[in-house]
Amino acid sequence: MATRRRPRAPRARDEAPVASSRAAGHSGGRDARRQGPGAADGTGAGVDVRGRTVRGAAAAGAVLLALVACTSTEPEHDRADDVVVAVGSPFLSLNAGTAAGLAPGSTLVRGLVQSGFTSLEEDGSVVADPSFGTVEVVDDEPFTVRYTIAETARWSDGVPVTPADLLLEWAARSGQLDEVVPEIGADGLPVDPAALDDVVAFAATSPALVHATAVPRVDGATVTVVHDRRVADWQVALDVNLPAHVVGRLALDPAAQTTDDPAPTGAGTVPPTDGPTPGATATGAAPGGTATGAPATTEPAPGADPTAVAADAARWAGAVQTAVEEQDRDALVDVARVWRAAGTAGDVATDPVLTTTTGPYVLAQVDDDGVLAVPNDAYAGAAPAAYASVRVRTDLDPLAQVDAVSEGGVDVAAPLSTGDVLAAAAQVEGATVLTGGDAVLQLVLQEGGGGVFDAAASSAGQATAARAAFVATVPREEVVTRAAEPLWGDATVSDEVLAEVALGPLPSGEGTAATAAPTAAAPTGTATATQAPTAPGADGLVVRLLANTDDPVRAEALEVVTSAAADAGIEVVVAEVEDPAAALRTEPEAWDAALVPVAQEALGVSAAVARWRTDGATNVTGHADDALDEAVDALDRAVDADARADALGAVAEGLRASGAVLPLVRTPALTLVRDSPVAGLPTPAGVPLLPPARADLTSWWGWVRG
Q: Is the pTM value of this prediction over 0.85?
């Protein structure tokens, strides 16, 4: 494999043998019968290198050689340094502060092209990248965090990462400069985005930065952030996101608002180009014209004066820093507008932010089929690119992804795991099938909305008895056996209550398990398939269960829960709603219980606090508990590892004891890796299972780094 070199022009999409064998009308397999050009001239005579006619035995030898040449097989593939990954979730945005940027497809791509101070692992642990910089607590009262940017931290256009980049992100995520709080719809987006254009409104307040009320202090390459109180998520609270020098130019330079170089629209609907498009220079300007084969580059245009380019970038980054430090309203209105829109999937020429990142790869092409990333020549960090290009395809359905691996057009696929997809994957020769766990499927109960578990609709005693009776009927082992094991043979019952923090078991503190098992006081989920419990409050109980039955795992879990409850005298009916996902958040009166797959969150502790504290921002169940609130508040302020582990355990134990949530099983995930050597194709090594529910996939991409 090549290391950190600019690749040749990538093969056009329709040249790669990636079409589904079903669509082609055959059973699959690659056509290995293509022949090379013949060498015989058809006369029965050969011609030697000096132009003389060769007859007799020599001529016969020449004919034999010609026949051999005619029947030889040309290499079917020619991309040994170009790896292709197929997934089901589209790339939407590089902006990690927006709903689109937090979508699974965006998280995957950002993990490939963006580096920062830290990254987050599946178990909730934080991994530092000293080649980018350091993050450290320098004072406990007031709680103060210092960021020091390393000299090797650079944007892909060669511009150094500066404090301006962090100040821009603080301005966007702290909420301190926003003049309005927009109404957010069920999709996580502002209901009226046009109303934000004339005010300072980044509309992306982070709970991990909301207590950083003062403008951060800048001293050389360091940025110091003072919080009003301790913040558990301090290690991942602030990092680089969008480049200040590009956002500054797009927002504040009148020359950037031309038809040749339009500002980002934010709609993500810019028509994609047919091929790679030149990206931005260090000043954010895109060279004219459309590339016909060469990958995009964020390097300065040929002949550009590097000193002038650097000075221009510093000018626009400085303009952003000044606007934030001096709270220049006029400038911040424009900066906020560009920040909200920048980085959305579309033509890379119209959004230079798409080609200006800090990781070992940089986007060269974004289209309807996915993205193409190439090595970032400006990258000087600890994990350089190991392939000439990485193509992430999002245009194939699950079975087509499997076919593409079989046919050599895709090297790694992470299709939706279903029975037919898993069976097809098992038939692919020369490939390894990886199965494992993804999001944690949990059963949560609605304690508001006037339903059967709402104390206000009956009494506290009746509601508590009803909750205990229903949850006690759930046979978790049978849910695992019927819903998960057919797709993941090693599936087990999950006890992960705080899946937003970690998808697997959390580390334990002193004497406290962070993953709480059922307790005697709350015999939740203790039923078996053959013996359902009889409990007070069960007779005549009707529970409306909210579930997306388009998901086969949830559909099967629903069947198990329904059957087991019926054996205990409880009737379970499917909640009648148009959109289960929306109803979970906006229609508490329409459901009593819900099957919810819980993904990891980038700010895990903050997410857990918002989900389970009384009146929390994402507390969809209406659960309220003064004792739990105390435990949650302690967790929200736990900044060292031991205190955090103990606090996580206390919150998990409180939730399980109250019967507010019952974890069932991790939903199955599938990854198919073509790992047998094939001429002309890369041979990926060390590829792990891809769980889309992870909040950060930086470490998953370790196999494409040196």
A: no
